[in-house]
Amino acid sequence: MLSISVVIPSLNSPLIGDVLTAIRGQATALSGAVEVVVVGRDERELVWEDEVIRFVDTGRPVPPAIARNVGMGRARGRVICFLDADCVPHRLWLQRLLDRYETPDVTVVGGGVAFPTDKYWRLADNISTFYPYLRTSPPGTRDQLPSLNLSFRREVWEEVGPFDERYPRPAGEDADWTTRARLAGHQLHFEPRAVVTHYPTRTTFGDLWRHAVGFGTYSIKVDERYRAALRSPPVFKHWVFPVLAAPAMAAWVTGRVFSDRHLWRYFYTLPAVYVAKLGWCWGASKRLRGRVEWYRPAEVVGRARSADR
Hints:
It contains 11 helices and 9 strands. The protein is of the alpha/beta class and about 300 residues long. It has one domain (about 5-305): Spore Coat Polysaccharide Biosynthesis Protein SpsA, Chain A. Strands 1, 2, 3, 4, 5, 6, 7, 8 and 9 form a 9-stranded mixed sheet that branches.
């Protein structure tokens, strides 16, 4: 049996108790091969440590890129699973991921995303962000994978290195890392049956807009480090082009989103998804103008890394 480490960044997530309860049941089914490392803050005191779960308090809020790197410093598994603290895994989530590792050349696997439909802006945000990774999407390989439901063999981490800790929020650090893994020769496999249900706190128009702008700002598509490798189109060569092309680009991508027949039942979110794509273009323009704020890791993070070693 492969040993598995599940690393969860959490900033006082109100759902972390539900997330951990779901994983505990799966850990029991896998005969003790699972450990869980939660990293961040837990002022609600919802994380109960036991033989499966450990908590690393960073002392202050830190971006998810740093939290995952800290968690990797504690993780002992041969297979690592990253899970977000607002994602509740379905009953066979871990087993579905691990089944893919029975093939020796499989080194990176991402799982499918489901979402609640009761809040309009949250639903639109989920559709806009994760439409290529839905539980109804076909399996296969992807150019990128999101870190809310991601796994890999430890040797991939040792080869590719840690997350870029300059990312100040969850808005591109996973695309950066999985792209580095792909460029290093690792195929990014997508297994839609390994499902988590995503419950983000983004429930207003402002939440959706800020999230979309952040994704555009930190997108690797406008990152000069990847321009040649990704063959970025000419529209990303100057900040004014994404602004001028925004209506057409947003319409084209929105059309791609809703070309998935499974999403047509949510056709009423189409205007919101279109607005989100406009926000992405605005964020890309900010990036090309150089208006990007990078995070500067605090000293306390170093203390969190060195504690309990």
